[in-house]
Amino acid sequence: MIDGDRIMAQATSRELERYGLEVGLKNYAAAYCTGLLVARRLLQKLGLDDVYEGNTEVDGEVVSTEYNKKKYYVEEVDEDRRPFRALLDVGCKPTTTGCRIFGAMKGAADGGLDIPHSNKRFPGYDRDAKEYDADMHRERIFGGHVGEYMEYLDEEDNQKYQEHFASYIENDVEADGLEELYEGVHEKIREDPSPGDKKDYSPDKSFKRKAKLTLDERKARVQAKKDAKNAELEEDDEE
Residues 6 or more apart from 19 whose CB is under 8 A from it? Predict the structure, then answer.
């Protein structure tokens, strides 16, 4: 029986602040971290986190193996418990090469989920040469592109650098420290992917919606407008 969709686990980049990432929550590296987080959270919920640890050595390569003539996108398949298979649903998002969606998917795949995919949409894939540079993808996962841009702006336009990376400067995040920062975030996610405590929500009860007018009240209001308009027209005629 189909009774609708069920959300088994979810994660957002805002949660990455718990793991030490307070800036750059919308780039490719943050998308990877978010995918890693939701994968580890789901596997922990299902009791599969110890069975399928995922790819702890982040190298940008596509991990896969065959078991009983079937291809799985994990490093090794347990004989008793199969990996959790997930399918990427991109919705209305454009599937361009290097899109952050594939960063989140790569993070989830490295987190231990069995997600069918290839390297053709990852950063580092050359469609013309049909070659894949995994090192380039790894660099993007660890924010190398952000670090390069930080260094470029710092040298070419320091004022723009101060404005564009104000939050990075405020949090003492430097270009040459990004890889170490993301490595630490990955480790902390694997240590504890459980959801954080929910914040208490108290709605604003001071606002009260106006009561709807009854049919008689609406008719009376319309009639009053008509009477006022008619009186105005009569005054104009007398003049």
Answer: 33, 37, 184, 185, 188, 189
Q: State the average pLDDT for the chain.
A: 93
Tell me which residue of 50, 61, 16 sits closest to 182, measured CA to CA: 16
Helix residue spans in 10-141 (DSSP H): 28-46, 100-110, 134-141
Distance from C-alpha of 15 to C-alpha of 24, rounded to nearest angstrom = 12
If you write DSSP's letter for every residue of 119-160 in order, what string do you get? STTSTTEETTTTEE-HHHHHHHHTTHHHHHHHHHHHHH-HHH
Q: Calculate the CA 190 to chain-centre distance.
A: 18
Cα 133 to its chain centre, rounded Å, is 24
Q: Each residue of 53-107: pLDDT tens digit?
A: 999 999 999 999 999 999 999 999 999 999 999 999 998 888 999 999 999 999 9
Residues in the chain: 239
Angstrom CA distances, 22 to 31, 159, 198, stand at 14, 22, 19
Helix (H, G, I), strand (E, B) or coil at 112: coil
Q: Output the CA–CA distances (angstroms, integers) from residue 41 to 73, 90, 105, 193, 239, in the order listed.
A: 18, 21, 14, 5, 80
pLDDT tens digits, one per residue of 129-154: 999 999 999 999 999 999 999 999 99
Q: Could you give the 3-state DSSP secondary structure of residue 107?
A: helix
Instruction: State the pLDDT confidence band at 18, using cuts at 50, 70 and 90.
Output: very high
pLDDT at position 120 over 70: yes
